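Re: that backbone. Tokens:
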């Protein structure tokens, strides 16, 4: 059984298969806690495997049938569905946090986010930045405490869809599935951040190809608020459907639009802006 602490939520995963256990552990090793009590967990899952593939169930007390039960999964699907369900349930149970789809990194004592549509290179850019003095909070999820203007860490394994360009080679220990590459936090080239960090800046990432040099421009608070809202996962949990929160975040930190080029040049452009 794996015991995890996720934003103060107690999560347990009953693993009836060694491979399923290793897949979950590789992605959530930073959240593992030592058993402290026998109280009922906030979230309980069961991961198993048969001839059809992996199976994942979320078990609810008092319910005869599981509200979430997936069968016939491959390794990538098991990882994806566990993370998706954990993220959704965490949002329900921690509605005071403003959850954003973003990579989150630490630089010189404060956090910055990379936001943008899937496929625009947030995680790849995050991987490059980790080689240049940045700490790792997350490559996927950035919950923001609106009272403190801090980013909560979510250091699951960094996930890439393709091999990054040199000089940012992957470690030998990378977990490979058919569509994804997972780098456990133990093999990242940087510190893993486990406490909330003040938010300083946001970069909206748009990948236009490696032929052009990266460009960077600062956005107005109105433009930034629109982009923050578009990348929010639980805005309806907040006043005015989350619009006020998006604008408050936009006013609190500087927001830039980054069109990326080659990975090393894009990383250098972000660091230049942060140092300035």
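Recovered sequence:
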């Amino acid at each position: 059984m794996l015991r995890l602490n996720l934003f103060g939520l107690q999560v347990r995963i009953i693993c009836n298969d060694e491979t399923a256990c290793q897949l979950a552990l590789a992605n959530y090793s930073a959240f593992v806690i030592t058993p402290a009590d026998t109280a009922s967990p906030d979230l309980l899952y069961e991961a198993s495997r048969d001839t059809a593939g992996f199976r994942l169930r979320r078990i609810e007390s008092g319910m005869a049938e599981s509200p979430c039960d997936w069968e016939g999964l491959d390794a990538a699907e098991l990882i994806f569905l566990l993370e998706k369900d954990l993220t959704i349930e965490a949002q329900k149970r921690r509605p005071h946090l403003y959850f954003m789809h973003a990579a989150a990194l630490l630089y010189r004592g404060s956090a910055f986010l990379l936001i943008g549509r899937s496929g625009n290179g947030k995680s790849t850019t995050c991987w490059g930045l980790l080689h240049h003095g940045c700490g790792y909070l997350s490559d996927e999820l950035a919950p923001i405490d609106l009272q403190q203007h801090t980013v909560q860490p979510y250091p699951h394994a960094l996930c890439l869809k393709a091999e990054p360009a040199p000089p940012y080679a992957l470690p030998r220990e990378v977990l490979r599935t058919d569509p994804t590459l997972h780098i456990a936090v133990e093999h990242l080239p940087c510190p893993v951040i486990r406490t909330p960090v003040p938010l300083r800046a946001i970069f909206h990432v748009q990948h236009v190809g490696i032929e052009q040099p990266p460009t960077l421009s600062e956005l107005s608070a109105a433009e930034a608020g629109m982009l923050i809202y578009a990348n929010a996962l639980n805005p309806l949990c907040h006043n005015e459907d989350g619009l006020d929160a998006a604008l408050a975040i936009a006013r609190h930190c500087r927001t830039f639009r980054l069109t990326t080029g080659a990975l090393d040049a894009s990383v250098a452009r972000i660091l230049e802006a942060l140092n300035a």
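The chain has two domains: 2-93, 97-275. The helical segments are 18-28, 75-93, 122-129, 221-230, 243-252, 263-275.
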